[in-house]
Sequence to fold (810 residues):
Amino acid sequence: MPNGVTNVLNECFCLVEDPFDPKVDPHKKFSFSDRKASLSRSLDIFNIAELEYYFIKIGMFKDAVDQVANFLLGSGFNVASNNPPTFLIEAPTGAGRSSLASYIAYQVKKHSGGKSALQTVPVGTEDEAKLAFSIKKLLEMHVKHENLSDCETVFVTYPDTLILGPNGPDMSFLSTIFQQLSTCMVGAPPLLLIIEEITYERMGWLSNLYKMLAPLNVILIFLTNDVRVRKQYEKLRSNGDLTGCRVRLGKLDEQAAVDFFVQRLDSFRREKCDETKRNVFPFDPKVFTQAFKDEEKHGGEGEQEKAASRAIGVKLLLNLFRQAFNLKLLELNQYFIESAGKHPKPELKLEELLITWDYFNNAYQNVIRAAAIKKDY
Amino acid sequence: MPQRYLPKVTLLILWLLFSCATVICAGESKTGNLIILSGGHNDEHWRESDKYGVSGLEGYFALGSISLVARSATGAPIEVEVWSRGIAYVGFFELTPLVDLFAGVQSSKDIQDLLVPLGAKTDLLGMPSSDRDKLEYLLGQKKLSQDANLTWKRRVAYAQMKALNLTTFEQLRTLYERQLEFAERAWDKQIEPEAMLALYGLDLPPHQNPPTHEKLLSYFIETLKRNKLLMPLLRTKIQNPSSASKMVGYVLHVPQNSLKKTSGQILVGANGLEPEMLEINLEVEREVSIFRPWSTTKFLSAILTPTITGIVGTLLGAIIGYLGFLAQQKYNRASEAERKFEEKKIENSVRIRKFFTGEYANYQGFETEEDERENVSSIRKSLIQQGIYAILPINEINDLNSICDSNRRFPKRGARLLALRGLLERRFRELVT
Fold:
């Protein structure tokens, strides 16, 4: 970050770092750049535990975290007993489900003594056998990493050439592999797999994968955005076909968004700064009202008609606010550059520091443009 | 008798026999050779506006007359009866009763000598009174009424004097001459109410403007009714043929709204022989007004002509046929849709049953209204993705979409899911359980 912008952050907003894309956190002595972490992407808490501090637990995030904690305490999950739970995260994309999945995996790792591996299995087709084959490959890596020599013979016995047929992987071979692995993987460090994502058509995989992989101490974290998958999961859980915990994430409403950014900014406040600017919130409150206003709907029966509010995913919110913030920073930096030689040094009023809706309009256009470019490519 | 006269006598006898037979045969016809009839209305057309109001009786009135004449003189008067058949409300009245009564009379003294002969005068001595009173007295004395012919004449004369309020024979003579003149002129033209009023010595009713034909007729008929001169059966007598016929008038009353066309006969019989018949035909032309919708209007009349009736009937038939065609098409479409639905249901029965026995149960429980909406929405999504939605008939699809519409309100929690359940279980009853 240019030196001028750092000065702006310090002097105008009492911040030590860009709260949206910091390079380092001097309070925690954590270098984002060195650890190849970023607050502008999903938080890899499983691998970088320090990121847990920046995982803001408000609203539905807090509820989900509490649910998982309570479940792990009460589930009796024991690595040695090979009764791994499953997790279902019901959330739309961009709502922070990947970060939550990583957080859950991290909690499970802590619960199981700190030894486990996490992999994300993206589901590209409706072919369950292909997914099972991908999982088999990950298991192979896990077995090799954990030096489970007994299990390695299973993979040698059933090479890929045997499994892969003209019509794709043969599910029966894969099932056999998994069955044979169950004996050698008792007590092995758990492998956590994030299955992204389970759709309605793939609902049947919930129980199939659990049956195949639970004996291997594989902990499945299912991601879904379909209410029906959640209901099926609950039915399987109530029938005893699987054990697990399901959590739900949604988009942030206006108040949740305000709380989120307040906490995010507080993470990067300077310890010492002007009292008037200590708690400066750079965003004009009207920005939140305008951003969350749903002009197509009206709410409030029996009362004065008011526009209904909508919810926005945390990913999009971060993107928009980050862009607007950066625009303001550049503007303020330019102002400081221009007024560098002036005496006395001109002071900016609080109103002049606020990021107004105009900045968001431009930011929104940039986001739309970027999405269009990405779509074209 | 010498034999040379025998053929002549035979011929004479034969001629006498033939003559008698001819007379007898001729005498056996309807009224014999006694009466000649003329006059009467064969055909009458009225318009609805021609109705006359007489003493509160609304309707149509026709005035007509019949002339009665004897072909040959007879010693005793011929009894004539006039009545009607087939037509109701016919009243007869004598216009010229004195004609044929005072044949050859020149003065009132002649009338007096005729009606009150010498013998009768002696009886009336000491009882001076008007001529009318004398006739009344004489008619009441049986021993003075031996002559039936004379009695008849006195009766007719007295009736006339009483009806027209005449007191002297002079007045009677004047009336007789008026009637005679009337009867002689009756051959020339139709009888008018003014002439009949004059005949009866009635003045025209008081009017500032000249009275209309209807008012005169009404006044005349009222006068006849008041004086009891209008009779359903008229009896009169004819004695001598003369150039002046005896006039009998008749009034036909047709009630306004009950008849449009009627026909009948007026019968004239004499001495009990088969009567002569006069055909009477009456037709009322209804006036139509386009501004009277509940009565027969010009519009309806135009429509009910054969041509327009045919056109309208054809149009109505076409419209009814087309509507029937549309209904049939609708029924066929519904039947076809139902048949296709049943076929597709059978084809996809395994998949449908799998849905209802597996996943469907996941969406039955709910705690909040949002949960219920979620369940309904999930069912709909699953139906679409499973291809069950496409099987449903279009009307059920519309109902399903309406149930799943979040903007639609339901009276209480659970009603939405219940409605959806009802629809699905109605259509897939055998596959749900």
